[in-house]
Amino acid sequence: SIEKTLKQMLKIIEGPSSDLRHRALVVFKSFMKKCTGAVRPYLLEVAPALIECVRSDRHITERCLVYALELHNNPDSLQQFAASRSKSVPASTVKQISDYCKRLASRGAADESD
């Protein structure tokens, strides 16, 4: 199932190995690029894990965020994400992710160079 696969990927992404994290991010990006919308129900789990990777793997993580939040083809997705609420994800984290993704969208991070 997608949920089980995502949870396994998130364990790797959140793990201590930078090499495995990078490889998982590459696979994750490819998956999200091909299966647009599949991650949408899990954004409150996926986005916080991704935002933690920005410092170590900036480019690939930004691409993952672009595809996860569908910034390239759904202009309302960021607003919908910003309005999301979860007991496990603080509102401040959702705001941090939303603000970062607004900057991504404003600088045209949705190019097809990957």
Mind sketching the topology for me?
Layout: H1 2-13, H2 18-34, H3 43-51, H4 58-68, H5 77-82, H6 91-106
Helix pairs in contact: 1-2, 2-4, 3-4
What is this structure, in a nutshell?
By secondary structure, this protein is mainly α.
Q: Work out the helicity level.
A: 55-70%
Given the C-alpha coordinates, what overall shape results?
globular
How does the major sheet shape up? Answer: none
Please indicate the percent range of residues in DSSP E strands (runs of 2 or more): under 5%
Number of helices: 6
Q: What structural category do the secondary elements indicate?
A: mainly alpha
Task: Provide the succession of SSEs.
Answer: HHHHHH
Radius of gyration using CA atoms only: 13 Å
For the termini, the CA-CA separation is 26 Å
Count of strand segments: 0
Which whole number gives the mean pLDDT? 90
* Low-confidence residue ranges: none
Task: Explain what the structure shows.
The protein is mostly helical and 114 residues long. The protein is built from 6 helices and no strands. Helix 1 (2-13) runs antiparallel to helix 2, helix 2 (18-34) runs parallel beside helix 4 and helix 3 packs antiparallel against helix 4 (58-68). The chain is globular and about 30 Å long. The termini are far apart. The mean pLDDT is 90.
